[in-house]
Amino acid sequence: MFELVQAGGWLMFPIILCSIISAAICVERFWTLRSKQVAPKNLLAQVWNWIKANEMDARRLRELRGHSPLGQILAAGISSQRRGRELMKENIEEVAGHVVHELERYLNTLGTVAAISPLLGLLGTVIGMIKVFSAIRLEGTGNAAILAGGISEALITTAAGLTVAIPSLFFYRYFMRKVDELVVSMEQEALKLVEVLNVEKVDRGSDARKPEIAQVAGR
To answer: What's the domain range around 198?
Structure first.
């Protein structure tokens, strides 16, 4: 391995650095973007049980905000439910924007790594070929060692750049898709919350609508 790095020249070091950054981001995002951590399935039903039991106080709101990204969005809706449906939705959208920004953290960096790694490899190819033609101009084609060194540098850096870029691009696309799926899931849960709270507000005191509200919260 060390021989390959040495043969590839100094451009192998930024390519290796890109590979380390890419691997670190992938591990961190795999851990952070777990569905059960971002948008737990039963959270809305639990929140509805708290509301129904009149247990949704300031302590519960703090607990909900710290529970998960979905909890932050639901807490934003609950805290503004007395301000009307539209303001409630605006508050949810504002908090959701911050949540999405956090979910996409480091993904631009991963995309940048995927873009620049093959360019670094291409730069190594160009430098290697310049060395080859310089050797041919100075010494002719008789010195095979010098020619082989330049060609090796050209091919090794290209291969290394592509080796880093291909998985980086794959995981960049994968994580962006994962974020989109989580955002859709959280949006659906937030809309259910808005529907439940506004139905409850309109029909407060009507026992006939309580089963319907509970069904909306739990579906």
So the answer is: 11-115+162-218
Residue 173 lies in a domain: yes
> CA 77 to CA 95: how far, in whole Å?
9
Residue 67, SS3 per DSSP:
helix
> Distance between CA atoms of 23 and 27, rounded to whole angstroms?
6
Give which of 60, 65, 33, 38 is closest to 49, Cα–Cα: 60
Q: What is the number of structural domains in the chain? A: 1
Instruction: Tell me the two tokens of residue 91.
Output: 């508050």
Question: Per-residue pLDDT tens for 96-148?
Answer: 899 999 999 999 999 999 999 999 999 988 887 887 777 777 766 666 666 66
Could you give the angle at which helices 85-103 and 69-79 cross, rounded to 10 degrees?
160
Residue at 183 is within a domain: yes
